[in-house]
Amino acid sequence: MALFKEKLLANLSNVYLAAIAIFSVFLLLLPPMPSTFLDILMVLNLMFSLMILLVILFEDDPTQFTVFPSMLLIVTVFGLGINISSTKSILTKGINFDGKMIKAFASFVIGSNDASTSGLVVGFVIFIVLIAVQAFVITKGASRISEVAARYAMEFNNTKSMGIDADMNSGVITEEEGRERKEALERSTNFYGAMDGASKFVSGNVKIGIFITIINIVAGLIIGSGINKEPFAQALRAYTRFTIGDGLLSQIPSLLVSIATGLSVTRFVATGSFAEDIKKQFTQSANIFFITAGTLFVMAILPGFPTIILLVIAVVVTLLGLRVRKVAINQTSSSKAGVTSETQSAAVGGVGTKETTEPIIPLDHLSLEIGYTLVPLVSDKKGADLLKRIGAIRKEIALDLGLVAPNIRIMDNMSLNPDEYCFKIQGVEVARGNILVGSYLGINPGNVQEEIPGIRTKDPTFGLPAIWIAEENRAKAEMLGYTVVDPSSIIATHLTQVIKQYAHTILTRQMVQDILDSVRKKDAVVVDEVLRVSNLGVIQKIMQELLKEQVSIRNTSAILETISDIYPIAKNVSITVENVRQTLGRQIALQYADEEKVLHVMKVDNEIIQKLIEGRVDLVTGPVVSITPDAQRAWIYSLQKSFMAFHQNGYMPVLLVQQEARILVKVSTEKEFPSLAVLSYPEIPTDVQVETLGVVKIEPY
Predict the structure, then answer these.
(1) In what order do the strands lie in the sheet with 483-485?
(2) Buried residues in 535-568 as b, exposed as e (16+ CB within 10 A)
(3) Closest CA to 664 of 610, 620, 701, 628
(4) Measured between alpha carbons, how far is 354 from 339 in angstroms, rounded to an integer?
(5) Which of 328, 329, 245 is nearest to 280 (CA)?
(6) What share of the chain is helix, strand, coil (3-state, %, to 5)?
(7) 107-119, pLDDT tens digit by residue?
(8) Residue 280 CA to chain centroid, in angstroms?
(9) Residue 604: its H or E element
(10) Alpha-carbon distance 393 to 433, whole Å?
(11) Which of 215, 448, 456, 641 has minimal CB crowding within 10 Å?
């Protein structure tokens, strides 16, 4: 019962709206209601319509009024219910009808309750004009604008969304700003789509109002003069008066709603409220007012025109123009004074008592700087696809490593050579390359026999021998077996490698916090437990060590569970990392195994392992190996010789060593072989077959 009350209170607003809608429908079926109650409903209908119009006028962004399409339906049904109920009352009571709201509106238009025939005609004409204006001008125009706005929003939705993605990838906006823009875009699209349909209700309401008006008059005359035997003239005056009053009370709220509909779909580029937009846009130039005033002065001196009225209005418009010019001059003077003040302050900043300091601009996590000849590669106007590729790269990195790469800011750098580009992490350059614009990079995979004409170079990503090929030789190069790469693909491939290589430096604590927040939604217990036994810095360090060796952190829950189990006991990041790697053993082993789940490895001689273990030194940052320079050179030389045979068999270099020696082998070789994969025996699952291709032994150096 308590739960039911809680849900009822939480959805109380929805209950009210539903009650109003249901009540409005029941009005169609109820017998004639008391006149007082009918007056109350008419006042409420008028009030709701006026409130809707005012909301549209004062709303900075009409699309923020998301409930407006639904309100149109509710107000329309509510008004139709009232209209039908008033029709029942008028036809039932006849000349004895005592609805004060209807009588008041009828008297306001016609004159007196005992209106003459001329008053009835005038009132009826005004009523017909009102309906015609609403039906053929306002409502039809609003419906057409709604249709065009909805079509425009639907057709350009994908284009706008792609533009937001491009801004996010280039670093112009943050990911949070991108999400907000996409939500606003979706809200706008849904709004105009709903308005396109809701405007049809308004149009139908006007048409049914005309029908009800005709019914009131014809049925009233039949009932009054035919059934009740009233004089025809008396029945005509009574039923026509009531019909005009009832029609005005139903059409005026409908007119307000129609105006609100038109305003909502015509203010799609609004930057403030309606009044603010008018003030801003009509006061941009005083010449507008002066030209208008001059036109009125000329009209005033022409014969036949109301001279005094035109002169008074012209003077008022002239005064407004002078006021606008004065405000513009004051704003210009203030701006100049501000600039002067800032300049003076900067000039004396070194010796004055108050020194101004510009805020420190934070460095970008990852940025791409290009020379000016490479700008077309990132220009949407030139049809470049690099921005789209960057978005795809970020998704690829997220799937491969579990790392959501930061937004990549792209900018031109005049200090670079025109054909150069470079990648920076936290403002520090980590990679650089050259692009010969208009050419393609041909890379020899090793089986090309015939060389093609071109400019010799090296692949900027992996340093492989390559050649710049002219566009006319592209097809020939592909036939010869070259791997031909276009400029955009070169940069995209290089970017992918940079992110993978420096993933551990890119991972910030804020990124770790975002990962934890995401995991918390599905596995809150694990997150709470790991934060009780460790902290954000420890989790970041463990994840960085994993990424440093290209181990994906996508299985975050398993990583956090292992940290919760091991770190409270070990109180050591390195030991925890090794245990996390064992937890992720299957993932790591399959990363280097072939399609048949066969892992081709090389083992290390026990003599070498023993020397590395004896030379172990545990520092705050982790274990290192302290051995003599000669022993280190012999160790690296032995690896190089072993890897030559390894490469000849077409395999990636993978070392398989004892658990206690894995981290030592890695740290002792990471300078010379940063991409070397070092696995321990506990990391290999039972269903993965291990094939040993050799043993690394100490060779004379």
Answers:
(1) 455-458, 465-470, 439-443, 483-485
(2) eeebbbbbbbbbbbbbbbbbebeebbbbbbbbbe
(3) 610
(4) 17
(5) 328
(6) 65, 10, 25
(7) 766 665 554 566 6
(8) 28
(9) strand 598-604
(10) 18
(11) 456
Q: At 462, which helix (H) or strand (E)?
A: none
C-alpha span between 628 and 626 (Å, rounded): 7
Helices (H) and strands (E) in the chain, counts: 26, 14
Q: 299: buried, middle or exposed (CB in 10 Å: 19+, 13-18, 0-12)?
A: middle
Average pLDDT over residues 351-361: 45
Across residues 518-535, what is the average pLDDT? Answer: 91
* Residue at token pair 């009054």: 224
**Half-sphere CA count of 615, side-chain side, radius 13 A:** 19
- Token look-up 């407004």 returns 320
129, 122 contact by CB (below 8 A): no
Q: What pLDDT, on the 0 to 100 scale, is given for residue 556?
A: 93
Beta strands in 343-427 (DSSP E): 366-370, 408-412, 420-425
C-alpha 491/C-alpha 493 separation (Å) is 6
What is the tens place of the pLDDT at every residue in 292-317? 778 878 877 877 777 888 788 888 88
Residue 353, helix vs strand vs coil: coil
Q: How far apart are CA 105 and CA 128, in angstroms?
A: 15
Q: Which helix (H) or strand (E) covers residue 60, if one does?
A: none
* Alpha-carbon gap, residue 316 to 321, rounded angstroms: 9
Within the chain, what is the greatest distance between any pair of CA atoms?
130
Q: What domains appear along the chain, each with residue ranges and CATH number?
A: 24-272 (no CATH), 287-323 (no CATH), 366-502 (3.40.30.60), 507-583 (1.10.8.540), 594-701 (3.40.50.12790)
Q: How confident is the model at residue 174 (pLDDT cuts 50, 70, 90)?
A: low
Give the tokens for residue 6: 């809680």
Interhelix angle 606-614/629-648, rounded to 10 degrees, is 140
The span from the CA of 142 to the CA of 622, in Å, is: 70
Rounded CA separation 677/592 (Å): 9
Question: Are the beta carbons of 270 and 150 closer than 8 angstroms?
Answer: no
> CB–CB of 598/691 below 8 Å?
yes
State the DSSP string of 279-320: HHHHSS-THHHHHHHHHHHHHHHSTTS-HHHHHHHHHHHHHH
Which of 150, 166, 157, 148 has its CA nearest to residue 186? 157
Strand-pair partners of 435: none
Average pLDDT for 130-152: 66
Give dist(CA 484, CA 469) in Å, integer. 8
411-443 tens-digit pLDDT? 888 888 889 999 999 889 999 999 988 899 998
Question: Whose structure tokens read 């009523």?
Answer: 127
Quick count: other Cβ atoms within 10 Å of Cβ 306?
Answer: 11
pLDDT the model gives residue 657: 92
Measured between alpha carbons, how far is 126 from 137 in angstroms, rounded to an integer?
A: 16
Please give the DSSP secondary-structure letter assigned to residue 378: G
Which pLDDT score, from 0 to 100, does residue 323 have? 83
Q: Is the pLDDT of residue 678 over 90?
A: yes
Single-letter amino acid code for the residue at 258: S
Q: Return the H-helix or E-strand segment holding 448.
A: none
